[in-house]
Structure formats: structure tokens, C-alpha cells
Amino acid sequence: MAKQNETKLMQVVIFVEGDTDEVLFKALIEHYRTISKTELRPYKICNLKGVTRYSSKLVAKLQNDYLPDARKKGYQIQTVCCSYDTDVFEVRNPLIVNWDALRKTVKRMGIQEFLQLGIRSSIEDWLLCDMEGICRYLGLSYIPKSLKGNDGNAKLNDLYSKARRIYQKGYQVKELVTSLDMSVIRKMHADALADLEKALNVIAQ
Hints:
The protein has helices spanning 2-9, 19-35, 53-56, 58-73, 87-92, 99-108, 123-127, 131-138, 152-162, 174-179, 182-188, 190-200; strands at 10-16, 43-47, 76-85, 113-119. The protein is an alpha/beta fold. The chain has a four-stranded parallel sheet with strand order 2-1-3-4, sandwiched between helices. The longest helix is centred in the first third of the chain and has 17 residues, at 19-35.
């Protein structure tokens, strides 16, 4: 019983960089609920609306919103998880966020765990893991062997064009994500998701 109460008191805050990421992570956590034999820890998802805001907004959100709210509700924020597309850091500006400084600042707030969850290379690459689900959603009768484009966004646009549709990022992907098999995405990115699943107390049946 003591362990159960302890689990309920710990909270996880997941920061994401955009609307598409928010939609996917909400669906992924709902999937965790269906497969976990343990109750998930309380969590919050915060959409920072841009990767640069990890430097300018994350600390303020914790100080002004999440930590006071957690204290009020009797929770303790144990884990902060930062999800971000790696393409920005790989191609554009690797120093756009000082992760070491951010980690130290978060730890000084009394939060024990700071996780970095890199989405390689972008959230669209993760969506493309379930090609069968996307093709079914688009009404395509076949799964293309290859797609044009140098990144996930370009490839997803090419796939949509085959169904004479236009891929739109953001909250518009909700219907698409609902059609995907989250177990496929989870399996293909098991290593990247392992620490988050542990923080959320996911123990698959």
C-alpha cells in the first residue's frame, strides 16, 4: 500500500516543442494506459510552441505553474522530460538549447530527474513508423516501397500526395494519429522511450 501511495504522489511533466508532438504523446500515453498492469503516475504535458522556448519558457512554467499546482494538490514533481526533434540540433544549431545548464536549473528546484527524449529526426519520422496505418487512413490500397524526400516531413507530404491530399502539421494530425498503431511506434523507439516509461511507471502486461 505504501508503494501505491508513493506512486500517486509522484508527478511527471513532459515538455514538447509543438502541436504535432503534443497530439502524438497524448495518444502514446493513452496507449500506455491500455497495456500497463500498473497505474500510471500523474503527468502533465506542456506544449512550449517552439524548441527555442526550452531556454526561455520551461523554467518559468515550472516555477509559476507546475510546482505551485503540484504542491497545492499534494504531488511532488519527480521527473521533467523534454521531447524535441533532433533535426534542429543536427543540421541548424546544435547550441540552440544549453541542456546542461537547463538540467542544473531544474535540479535546483528539487526535481530529481531530468530526461531528454530526442525524436530522430522529426516527429513525422515517428509517424511514418506505421506506414500501414497511414495508408489505411489515406485510403491507399498499397504501401509505397519508397517515398521522396530527405526528411520525415517531406516523405509524409509525398505519401499524402499519392492520395491527393495535403499533410498539415499541428492539431490537424489528430485523426491521423488516432488511426495509427501506437504499439508499432513504441516498439520501434523502445530505447528512446524507455526512461519516460520508467518515470511514468509503465509496466507492460
